[in-house]
Amino acid sequence: MRKSRNPLNFMWNSRKGIVVLFSLLILFACASSKEEEELFRQKYELAVQSFEKGEYGEAEALFREIISITPSSRVGISSRFMLGLSYYREGKYREAIVQFDDFIRRKLPVDETFLAGYYTANSHFYLKNYFDAARFYLWVMRTENERLKEATRRSLEALLWGYLTVDELHRLRRVSAGQPGEDLISFYIVKRLEAEKAHRLLFEEAQIFLQNYPTSEYSKDVKSMVTNVEQELSKSIIIGVLLPFSGPLAEYGKEIYSGIELAFKDYMRESGKNIVLEKIDTEGDPLVAVVAAKKFLSRCTPVAIIGPLKSESTIGVGLLASEKGIPIITPVASKEGLSKIADGIFQLSPSLEEKSRALATYAFVNLACTTFAVLAPDDEYGKRAGRTFAEKVKELGGTIIGEKYYPEGTMDLTAYLDSIRSPIIKRLSTYTKADSSDTVFYDKRRCLKPPNEWIVHIDGFFLPNYAEELANVLPQIPFNYIDTRFFGAIGWTSQSLVKSSKEYIDGAVFVPDEFYIDTSTPQWKNFSRLYKSAYPEKSEPSRMAALGYDAGKLVVEGLKKKALVPSAMKDFISGISAYEGASGNISFNSYGTNTYVPILRYQGTKITRLR
């Protein structure tokens, strides 16, 4: 805390205040008779004379006597002020505060009230109650008396600059929100941070100031400080990159890093700025990731962190980063709810649940499907996708005819499909006495078919299955007399599926897995060209590299917008919507989850994008 000039060097001239009160006494005295009025006037004049001679004890006794006899008259109220001023001059600051408070509570004409507030602030200052002194100075700033306001402002500025800590300034701003002088407090917070060379905090506070007080008289000075601090911050921009650079997942880590590196190389070449990419090896181990992140954050403050690879690692690292206000962009981690764990976690890869909800919504809203069935593996991924899809359909008002999960290794799915068909068969059985020409129930000889041969229609059949399983699952659905349209997740972009099941996949609508690349977009083509030029030894870039590139590009875009500190970077990334990246579109919701999910369809054996 820095000491500055004494704020009371600007003290309001109390003698002039006394003259004001004398005038008020003459104008507003309200004694019950002329004799009493004259008596009180004489006693008051004697008290004032004693005050002016510095005989404060005698003056106090006379003012107290007047107050005791006529407490509510104007003479009595003026005596209350003068009693407070006598205490103040005598150095009895606690008594002065009590007396001035009593005067203020009388709700008299505002000029006198604010003058009492000014002396109350001064008294708090002498008692070293600097925070309370500042609060009263702020209150007095409401006065329309320009001389008093100027004296108060100068006293307040001295307190803000030299007697209160920065933390106390923050507290003062909170309790004084909406009052005149709020911008002055914020301005001095910025000035104090500039003096302490706290560049990151200065930048953050300056942004808050310019956003909240754009027309303030101090805005020009704050903008000048921002320009200077931007130059300082630009000298050392650190981005943390937490990925597995060793261990069984090192290949993925290196692929992602190559994309990150490319994004920043491009920016550094264009801007001439030096960005430090601090590589931290997580080894693919959540515990190692947390320990390494803690050590890294103890020695520096990065503008942002990119990584880690796995959701389990992101949980711990995300909590650590959020604690320090540092945004973290995880390119691949896709666990449901991951970004909700702490503020400032951003997921580029939508969760399986998010994809399943998007597909259900598209099927119901865009394709007018209302009845659905779910057949999925009885494992974590199958259940997560299947249950989420079913819940979303019901939420939208659709119907789930059947929802079944089969154990690993199951080849014959007839029992599961019969169970899905069963409620429809039961309903259809009431129509079997209809026209025998109905091919649903009768064969060519107009003989009633057995129920297990009745063709049932379901608008959509959701199959969140692995590619190797789909070759077995797909043929069994029409074989069991189910007419439907396939909707899929997890394994539907596999080339092996096209080879094994091309007669079943035409028209199927699905969401891609984390490895799918839409090579037709301009963003991918541009990224691929840059990547091959930067890494001629590598083949076609992977989606992992594209995700790393997009994560890096988001940070780069933030830096271009002067997001040079973590809080500004977090605010920038939070606002990302419909960003067209190499890996696909990116739109973050309020929790930091990328909600954009591409919807794909097979036209024959060719994949096209519906959305």
In CATH, the topology of the largest domain is named Rossmann fold
Helix content: 55-70%
How many domains make up the coordinates? Answer: 3
- CATH homologous superfamily designation of the largest domain: Response regulator
Provide mean pLDDT, rounded: 90
CATH class call of the largest domain: Alpha Beta
**Mass-distribution shape:** elongated
Topology of this structure?
Layout: H1 14-28, H2 34-52, H3 56-69, H4 74-90, H5 93-105, H6 110-126, H7 130-140, H8 146-162, H9 166-175, H10 182-195, H11 199-212, H12 219-234, E1 237-243, H13 250-271, E2 275-281, H14 286-299, E3 304-306, H15 311-323, E4 328-330, E5 345-347, H16 352-366, E6 371-377, H17 380-396, E7 399-406, H18 414-428, E8 456-457, E9 460-463, H19 467-479, E10 482-483, E11 486-488, H20 495-505, E12 509-510, H21 522-534, H22 543-560, H23 566-574, E13 579-580, E14 585-586, E15 600-603, E16 606-609
Parallel strand pairs: 1-2, 1-3, 3-4, 4-5, 6-7, 6-9, 8-10, 9-11, 11-12
Antiparallel strand pairs: 12-15, 13-14, 15-16
